[in-house]
Description:
It is a single chain. Helices cover 47% and strands 13% of the residues. It has 16 helices and ten strands. The strands form three sheets. A four-stranded parallel sheet has the order 1-2-3-4, sandwiched between helices. Strands 5-6-9-10 form a four-stranded parallel sheet. A two-stranded antiparallel sheet has the order 7-8. α6 packs parallel to α7 (124-144), α8 (164-173) runs parallel beside α9 (197-205) and α15 packs antiparallel against α16 (352-371). The longest helix has 21 residues, at 124-144. 48% of the residues are buried. GO terms for molecular function: 2'-deoxyadenosine deaminase activity; adenosine deaminase activity; zinc ion binding.
Amino acid sequence: MANPIGPTPIDLQALRRAPKVLLHDHLDGGLRPATVLELAAETGYGALPASTEPELAAWFRDAADSGSLVKYLETFDHTVGVMQTPEALSRVARECAEDLAADGVVYAEVRFAPEQHLQGGLSLDEVMEAVLAGFASGESAARSAGRPIVVRCLVTAMRHAARSREIAELTVRWRDRGAVGFDIAGAEAGFPPSRHLDAFEYMRDHSAPFTIHAGEAFGLPSIHEALAFCGCDRLGHGVRIVDDITGVEPGSSDVSGAQLGRVAARVRDARIPLELCPSSNIQTGAVASMAEHPFNLLAQLRFRVTVNTDNRLMSDTTMSAEMLRLVETFGYGWTDLQRFTINAMKSAFLPFDERLAIIDDVIKPGFAVLIG
């Protein structure tokens, strides 16, 4: 039902009521600070840089504000360090689903690298079992609380390691039990996606989708490789596609003079989704500021842009907070936010009929109330 008194003013409280879709969120980047402390105590992990919840939350945020992707990634040593038991993995996954649902997320693809959770003697399949059980438990709790959510897993291989084919096989082995796609992540410079062609070929051979972290720190060459050599279905971040657009400044509201290069034109023409993460892009130095973020330029040029959190702990953010920053910077309204949300749902690695059902039965009615 439409709002009889017109559009709801956009603020954080209203944004939390809006149905949201999240495609780029790291499980080990979204822990509650209190959970990190409790798991460290339970598992004997003694290397935490702070001993209270506020201090630890501030440390993660400040340490991530380095302007360097490599330094940003170092913060994960502590979250991964406390996620080495089945109980810890299930708890983190359950709380992830609950936290996203509480923020109004109705569909999420949460990614993590199973190969980083073997220090306690678990196998890759045992890690998957624990995480997916946690997601299912979180879905059930969210449904009971009146905030239903669908959570699926993107299985990630680390690009500096040599296990990507094995992780691709793991993805396919679990794809009917909650794993919907494959990804590679980690430092981009020196570790091009083309090093993992065997894994991507395996995914294509099994008609399984995958995304690739590209165009965050290393720029346009990594996007070109991800598309031309690897054949990815989505671009993780992809923010540096702006390097292939001339005639306009990244933060400009006038795109009339924009000229797209060959790579940018292919991304737009083929409707390849961009998993943009505004706050994180600034923290890692991929973008200088929110005002200079190319999100609005890409949106106006009708690229398939989506809004994402990347790492909620490190960026001290939520989906609602990310949307509010975009609204405050670029003046978006509810119809714009609905378009970005539908972009994301169209781009999800769910079967078509399931995507369509969420768009028609959840997203459109939810925004109709807010739009008025």
